[in-house]
Amino acid sequence: MAGPLEGCRVIELAHIMAGPVCGLMLADMGADVVKVEKATGDDTRRSVPPDIQGESAAFMMMNRNKRGIVLDLKHPQGKSALLRLIKDADVLIENYRRGTLERLGLGYETLSSHNPGLIYCEISGFGRTGPYAERGGFDLIAQGMSGLMSITGEGEGRPPVKVGAPVSDITAGILGAMGVAAAYARRLQTGEGQRVDTSLFEAAIVQTYWQSAITFATGVSPGPMGSAHPLNAPYQAFRTADGWINIGAANQANWERLVKLIGVPELRVDPRFSTNDRRMANRPVLEDTLNRVFSVQTTAYWLDVLQAGGFPAGPVLSIAEMQQDPQALARDMVVETMHPLAGRVSTLGLPVKFHGTPGGVRRPAPLLGQHTREVLAELGYAATEIEALIESGAVALPH
Fold first, then answer.
1. 366: how many CB neighbours lie within 10 A of its CB?
2. Distance of CA 318 to CAs 181, 322, 323, 345, Å?
3. CATH architecture of the domain covering 9-206+325-396
4. Mean pLDDT, residues 74-98
5. Could you tell me how many helices (H) and strands (E) the chain has, helices first?
6. Active-site entry in 32, 42, 72, 169
7. Phi and psi dihedrals of 37, rounded to 5?
8. Is 169 among the catalytic positions?
9. What is the pTM of this model?
């Protein structure tokens, strides 16, 4: 389970979500990610409830596969230890507001002078350039400003709704990891490092590809459509006798197969529904018609019928149901770690499979400062020097 990034050293100066997602992705792919925390720890350590044996479930989810140290970056010796750590690192991830690390003397210009090959990944609310560069960012704000909340929800005239998951935080972390991997590949060719800059705002904007295409073409901004698709119909959730089923008739062939399988072949020649543009124009009527059909049988019944006919359909699962789904388990998307305090802890797996260099979850999230002594020793600090750093408050060990 070494992973394709084995041998890559990453320093994570990041907190809460977007930056730690970036570090998590790189760690799962085999990088040695050293998470540097303040004395009070990443704020996610206090995101409770829920907790498991006193350990934040949220923190353990976002920080598995990482080693953790505590450095006081305002202390001269703590800052010196970080510079020593950076000297042989490949990547640094940070998600502070613009200017925070510069004021500490830890900005890109300073760190790249110590390590010209350093890849310096910055994940912020709005990016490091432009009129909003000084602003902080949160997922909710990014979702609203990107237009994403204007297309999420049940329909016109309803209150704006954000996507249930913090998609801009998660996507920004994934984009950051993608950028780091590309910059790392370039560095292996040239030896040169560079800055990688992405934001929650841009991460939310890229979720609007279809709706932006429609707006560019028509000049009209689409509104919310519930679970429906802005370009194809029927492509949405329908009510069954005991729940909901998602139907993916995203092309004409699938539409014709659907109406045959569910026993309403007359809809194939109904002039309101005969082509996709007519189905889109008459979507409310189509939705009512299909809801009546699907509501007479259970979700399981319809899934058996549709899957036997090779039609794309699926249930609407709860999170707990997803975690027990046989495909999720077969793809190692639910795995376990053994945490020193919380014990056996379930977590989500690596969503990219490398068949030659498989990555995966190798270790649980660190205790606060768990690997401080270990990492400092790797940097060449003698045992007496480490004790002196602990005494000075420049570094810390677990309580």
1. 24
2. 33, 6, 9, 20
3. 3-Layer(aba) Sandwich (3.40)
4. 95
5. 17, 14
6. 169
7. -115, 155
8. yes
9. 0.94
